[in-house]
Amino acid sequence: MKSKTYIIILTLLVATASVSYAETAIPTRLIEQRKALVEQKKEIITEKKQNIQNMKDEASTTRSEIQNQKEEGRTKIEEKRKEIVQNIFGNQMKRVGSRLEATITRLEGLVIRVNSRIEKIKNAGGKTDVAEKYVAESKTNLTDAREELAKMKVVGDTVMTNVSSTTPPVKDLVNIKASSKKIEKQIQEAHKALEKAVGSLKGVSGTIPNASSTKTINQ
Fold first, then answer.
1. CA dihedral sign, ordered 166, 169, 174, 175
2. Exposure pattern of 130-168 as b/e (b: 16+ CB <10 Å)?
3. SS3 letters across the chain
4. I need a surface site. Which of 111, 138, 164, 216 has the fewest CB within 10 A?
């Protein structure tokens, strides 16, 4: 009888313990599951934020690349414009400079010819004072013209170096134009003086350079 009673009591204790354990274990599992869900939600939110940030970074990089491409494009256009202006201005300077220098050189050649004739006439006893005065005047004008041409070339080289993508410096262009006009005037004065020198020698002695030859020089 006592054995049966003991067994019943033991069974009841085991059942009570099982129920108590079950009641305790269920809330623990729920808490763990909840924690797992919370952690998973945090991971999802973190990943979402990271994805958004990555998208922003990519967008920023794309905008930066586009901006760089625009800058490179503008730079290339500016360089091309500058090259065009340099070519136009450089060719113009070359043409003007070559024309003026060639004219000065031809007149200097005529001065040598006239001087040679003056020496022959002087040696023969002829009077050449007037011709010598005009030749000296011509030489002075030609020397001034060549010096001015050298200055103009220096200014031209400076403009070519510092030229912008639109137009060369206006001030320098004005100076170059003024120099060109000054040189042309000096050439004209030298040309006139030579004509007078040649004219003064006519009839003095022998044959002299034809005055009309000086008129073939381009101004």
1. negative
2. ebbebbebbbebbebbbebbeebbebbeebeeebebeeb
3. CHHHHHHHHHHHHHHHHHHHHHHHHHHHHHHHHHHHHHHHHHHHHHHHHHHHHHHHHHHHHHHHHHHHHHHHHHHHHHHHHHHHHHHHHHHHHHHHHHHHHHHHHHHHHHHHHHHHHHHHHHHCCCCCHHHHHHHHHHHHHHHHHHHHHHHHHHHHHHHHHHCCCCCCCHHHHHHHHHHHHHHHHHHHHHHHHHHHHHHHHCCCCCCCCCHHHHHHCCC
4. 216
Q: Which fold has domain 84-216?
A: Butyryl-CoA Dehydrogenase, subunit A; domain 3 (1.20.140)
Kindly list the domain boundaries of the chain, sorted by start residue: 84-216
Backbone torsions φ then ψ of 206, nearest 5 degrees: 60, -165
- pTM for the model stands at 0.58
